[in-house]
Amino acid sequence: MSILFVDSIQPKTTGQAITVATTNQSLGKVLQVIPMIKTDTFVSASTSFIDITGFTCSITPSSTSSKILIMSTINGSQSVGANRTVLKLLRDNSVTMLSATGQGNRELATCGISSPHADLIATSHVTILDSPETTSQVTYKWQGRVTAGSGNFTINRSNNDTDNNTYTRFASNIILMEIGG
Length: 181
Description:
The protein is an all-beta fold and 181 residues long. The protein has one domain (33-100, 108-179): Jelly Rolls (Sandwich), CATH 2.60.120. It has strands at 30-38, 42-44, 50-59, 67-78, 85-91, 95-96, 111-113, 122-130, 138-146, 153-155, 172-179. Strands 1, 2, 4, 8, 10 and 11 form a six-stranded antiparallel sheet that branches. Strands 3, 5, 6, 7 and 9 form a five-stranded antiparallel sheet that branches. A hairpin with a 3-residue loop joins strand 5 and strand 6. The radius of gyration is 23 Å and the shape is elongated.
């Protein structure tokens, strides 16, 4: 890298302006990292979206041009009677992150849990680059629901969760990174 030292700069032609390009030194750099790990379990039979208790993470961007890189891993299971489990990652209780364009009566969600047996765990990994365009605190949280049936869904454990060494418990997480923009 070169450095130019001068005492004055004058335009070549009188009355013309001189434009000096500036660079944003934080452009593309990681400005802050906020990790959240959910180690406890959650069980629900709700057919309406509900918050997954304790699975939320907040960040306050330093600039409206910053991006938020969201990386999350969610582990879960469902009972055989649950039909399907759908999960949404929301920004500030309203914006569903990484969902498809709606068509008809189809569900809009971020990902799902589908395990053919109540003893199995399904894992979803989600990576999203969000542009919240604010310097106010932004909160990301997971919600879930079963689509039909009489069963439930679980987070960080199998549905049966029998207390012996053939069953496993897991942790899920959210990592938020502010990227300078």
